[in-house]
Specification:
Family: Belongs to the mitochondrial carrier (TC 2.A.29) family.
CATH architecture: Alpha/alpha barrel
Oligomer: single chain
Organism: Micromonas pusilla (Picoplanktonic green alga)
Structural class: mainly alpha
CATH topology: Mitochondrial carrier fold
Protein name: Mitochondrial carrier family
Subcellular location: Membrane
Helix content: over 70%
Strand content: under 5%
Pfam families: Mito_carr
Number of helices: 12
Radius of gyration: 19 Å
Shape: elongated
Length: 280
């Protein structure tokens, strides 16, 4: 998919921001965005190339799940619109949620490999696969991550496409749309897709932090963190992980890397839904 090729650097910064907080290497020790981390990245060719670590797993992470998502979305949307009296926006939400739920089964294992590569560039793809699949503990950790990924991906998938479809239909019915924005044009679809993607990305950011931290806990940590007060770090479940994150920085800690997440997904979903409308 085009979005997986065009915006991996922002995704890498998002994962690195969350991983940096987890490892306890942040200089300020607080939650929130990472202005110091991002501005400290040297713009050398080697560093820029490292932002594309995890590109192949990212393609695997996005391609098959998106195919499942759209296939199920279109089939279920048509079924609901034809056979129920539900409002169209409810049909969009339900179809998007079910499609994303199925797609997440494929997405989470690939995301674990991608995040491991981005958090530690010295780990090979084969090493990342072995880390998460070679024993029962790694596989159990993926199941825990998937249980939270559902909470992240289902509302994200539902909101992004429901907003897009609803606004597209609304603008299409206006004789003089605001700002001359035609919902059926290439630019209009890109803007509406970006809006849906950005809003969906922001509201699902807290669950994304929990998922990333569940994935990252499979490896070893360096330095003291607030999580050292909790026994058996490598076996934290979703609820305990959420408590640990809250203990580190309160509510703000759940939005760690949210700026990078929105900057990643807004243009990515804009490209994705524009291409989707061109070919459907």
């Amino acid at each position: 998919p085009l979005d997986a090729l065009n915006v991996p650097p922002l995704d890498a910064l998002n994962v690195a921001a969350i991983a940096e907080q987890y490892s306890g290497k942040r200089s300020d020790g607080a939650g929130g965005d990472h202005p110091n981390f991002v501005s400290a990245v040297p713009l050398s060719p080697l560093t820029l190339a490292s932002l594309y670590d995890g590109l192949v797993p990212n393609l695997i992470k996005e391609g098959p799940p998106l195919a499942l998502y759209l296939g199920i979305y279109e089939a279920l949307k048509s079924l609901l619109l034809r056979n129920t009296d539900l409002a169209p926006v409810v049909c969009y939400l339900a179809a998007g949620a079910v499609g994303e739920c199925v797609g997440s089964v494929v997405r989470v294992p690939a995301e674990a490999i991608k995040s491991t590569r981005q958090a530690d560039g010295s780990v090979t793809v084969a090493g990342a696969v072995a880390e998460h699949f070679r024993d029962g503990r790694g596989r159990d950790n993926l199941v825990r991550a998937w249980s939270v990924a559902i909470v992240r991906d289902v509302p994200f998938g539902a909101v992004q496409i429901a907003l897009f479809e609803a606004l597209k239909s609304y603008l299409g019915g206006l004789e003089h749309p605001p700002l001359g924005l035609d919902g059926g044009s290439f630019v209009g679809e890109a803007v509406l897709g970006s809006l849906g993607g950005g809003i969906g990305a922001f509201i699902s950011a807290p669950a994304d932090v929990v998922v990333t931290r569940l994935i990252e806990q499979r490896g070893e940590t360096d330095g003291p963190t607030a999580m050292e007060t909790i026994d058996d770090l490598d076996d934290l479940g979703p609820v305990d992980m959420a408590r640990a994150i809250y203990a580190e920085g309160g509510v703000a800690a759940f939005f760690e890397g949210s700026g990078e997440r929105v900057l990643y997904w807004a243009p990515a979903i804009g490209l994705f839904l524009t291409a989707y409308c061109r070919f459907r």
